[in-house]
Design a protein that fits this description.
- By secondary structure, this protein is mainly β.
- The chain is 0% helix and 58% strand.
- The strands form 2 sheets. It has a 4-stranded antiparallel beta sheet with strand order 1-6-3-2, with no helix packed on it. A 4-stranded antiparallel beta sheet has the order 5-4-7-8, with no helix packed on it.
- A hairpin with a 2-residue loop joins strand 7 and strand 8.
- It is elongated.
- The protein starts with a strand and ends with a strand.
């Protein structure tokens, strides 16, 4: 595939406010990106998190799915040298929440 993913689970510090009642999926940052971009997901309870990435013609070029514990999850995506510059569509699902959007890769 074009994309490799590194997953880092960030623990919840004790001074954090109460976890949300439903999942919260932030925006990718930076966007546009050159080599890596991140997105943060807050999970109020354990469950499945998945991501799919598509080129602009709709062809799926990357997918990932995993069970995760409750807490703050940061996904970091590193583009490899085979990924051409361009606009890509993503779909992230976390528990019962789904978010879609665009990310722009610039070499």
């Amino acid at each position: 595939g074009y994309i490799t993913a590194e997953l880092d689970l960030v623990g919840i510090e004790e001074h954090h406010t109460k976890m949300p009642a439903k999942p919260i999926i932030d925006e990718f940052a930076p966007n546009p990106f050159n080599s890596a971009t991140q997105i943060t997901i807050d999970l109020p309870y354990p469950g499945e998190v998945s991501m799919a990435l598509f080129d602009f013609s709709g062809r799926q070029i990357y997918s990932w799915k995993e069970q995760k514990n409750a807490g703050n999850l940061t996904l970091t995506f590193h583009a490899n040298e085979e990924l051409p510059s361009g606009t890509y569509l993503y779909r992230i699902q976390a528990l019962d929440m789904e978010k879609s959007g665009k990310i722009v890769f610039v070499q």
